[in-house]
Amino acid sequence: MNALLNLLEDNALATPETLAAQLNLTPDEVRSQIKQLEKDRVILAYKAIVDDERAKRTHVKAVIEVRITPEREGGFDRLAHRIAQYSEVRSCFLMSGGFDLLVFVEGNTLQEVAGFVSEKLSSLPGVLSTATHFNLKTYKVQGVLREAVVNEERLQVSP
After folding, report:
1. By the 8 A CB rule, do 88 and 107 touch?
2. I need a surface site. Which of 60, 101, 115, 153 has the fewest CB within 10 A?
3. What is the pTM of this model?
4. Using CA atoms, how far apart are residues 56 and 128, in angstroms rounded to an integer?
5. Are 17 and 27 contacting, i.e. CB atoms less than 8 angstroms apart?
6. In which domain, by residue range, is 72 found?
7. Are 64 and 133 in a shared domain?
8. Cβ contact 36:102 at 8 Å
9. Residues 6+ apart with CB under 8 A from 82
């Protein structure tokens, strides 16, 4: 099933017939495996990767480093799940290093994102500190280059 997942990650719109030919399976076997993967929540969703600039969408995106206090029973999980429930949150990860959670958020304006951080996130019991980094320009997202590489000239090396 790993091969099937790899193919679906590359192109979720590939037909069962196309996938079956690549995997030496029947289309019905592929459909069955996909159905089972969806049922088991191995496949969580199918999403399009959209170029916001070309789509003329002006979302403000930010990445927030969050330090939290682990709870006696449940560690980081309970607070992380609570933070992940907010509609502004697009992704939330437990991290190693100098902070505990990495939270990706999105809003319509800079003020909306700032308001989320100051009014909702920072005020939660257990949140020790936050550091917000705003996305200024996107070059690559989810493994896809935003623009085709025009010039693959090698960088000069200094002596």
Report:
1. yes
2. 153
3. 0.82
4. 36
5. yes
6. 60-137
7. yes
8. no
9. 124
